[in-house]
Specification:
Strands 1, 2, 3, 4, 10, 11 and 12 form a seven-stranded mixed beta sheet that branches. A four-stranded antiparallel beta sheet has the order 7-6-5-13, with no helix packed on it. It is mostly beta strands and about 300 residues long. The two termini are about 20 Å apart.
């Protein structure tokens, strides 16, 4: 007879990098990595458990989107068997001239918008239940306004707040206790602050590892937390422009977790690397991957 085991899973992709500050304008927050789960976490986001035949399965853990003074990238996908979560979208970057410019990028959750740049769509490509939400947009159009936050697993990124030039907050992530310990994953990055008519503060990172947006005049975005899929914070605006760019925060790497009944005794581990772990939690056995490996 065919031998199969039913597993619950948590598959979180790498978060998107926050948008850099190019000349005076702030950068959008990075979107959280796609969040897909079964059996645990918010019930509207629970998919169907997977039946796997006995054997080996490649596990891919997506990296967070890298950032520099010249670019901000989206995160990479995470994969377990037939479940793929899409990397979070990078935050928007505005440039009045030259090549350093982009819209908020689509992804598991979308990157936040910036001046003259739209926010990225979430749940791209679409999954059911949805793997994420869109980024936030500018509260109004002037160039000095703060940028929008990146989307998170359970909420869209926040719009920037024009009266006080505060960047939009990152969208909230999703709590999940598949390992037996409640942890929140896939929060969006905060948008960068504006600079006029008064300095502002960066948006808060969304619960679940989202990085905070940078403050006015020299504030780089904060990186998303490793192995949460959190988006990086966008860089704050600067007036007058100092001629060098401030970086957005890098996205946080993703994570992959599988859980089966302890009686199945199916998970094995070839090494004691701290990047992978087999956790025995009474009636269950959990395999946790912080880096790509084999289940």
């Amino acid at each position: 007879p065919k031998r199969e085991v039913t597993i619950d899973y948590l598959v979180v992709a790498g978060g998107g990098g926050g948008g850099l500050r190019n000349q005076p304008s702030s950068g959008g927050g990075g979107g959280a990595g796609g969040y897909r789960a079964s059996g645990f976490g918010p019930s509207p986001l629970q998919g169907t458990a997977q039946s796997l035949s006995l054997g080996s399965y490649s596990v891919t853990v997506g990296g967070g989107g890298a950032t520099s003074t010249t670019s901000s990238a989206s995160g990479s996908d995470s994969v377990l068997a037939g479940i793929t979560s899409t990397g979070g979208g990078a935050g928007a970057i505005f440039s009045p001239s030259g090549p350093i410019s982009q819209q908020g990028q689509p992804g598991g959750s979308g990157g936040g918008g910036a001046y003259s740049r739209t926010a990225g769509c979430g749940n791209t490509p679409p999954t059911d239940p949805p793997q994420g939400n869109p980024g936030g947009v500018l509260g109004s159009s002037p160039q000095h306004e703060a940028a929008g936050g990146g989307g998170g697993a359970t909420a869209a990124g926040g719009n920037s707040n024009p009266p006080n030039n505060k960047g939009g907050n990152g969208g909230a992530g999703a709590p999940n206790n598949i390992t037996g310990t409640a942890t929140t994953f896939a929060g969006g990055g905060g948008g960068g602050a504006g600079f006029s008519p008064a300095p502002g503060g960066g948006g808060c990172g969304g619960a679940g590892g989202g990085g905070a947006g940078g403050a006015t005049n020299g504030g780089c975005g904060t990186a998303g937390t490793a192995n949460t899929g959190g988006g990086g914070g966008g860089a704050g605006g600067h007036d007058p422009s100092p001629g060098t760019n401030d970086t957005g925060g890098a996205g946080g790497s993703g994570i992959v977790i599988a859980r089966a009944p302890a009686s199945a005794e199916i998970f094995t581990q070839g090494s004691s690397s701290n990047e992978t772990a087999i956790i025995n939690c009474g009636a269950c056995q959990v395999a946790q991957f912080k880096a790509s490996s084999t289940l």
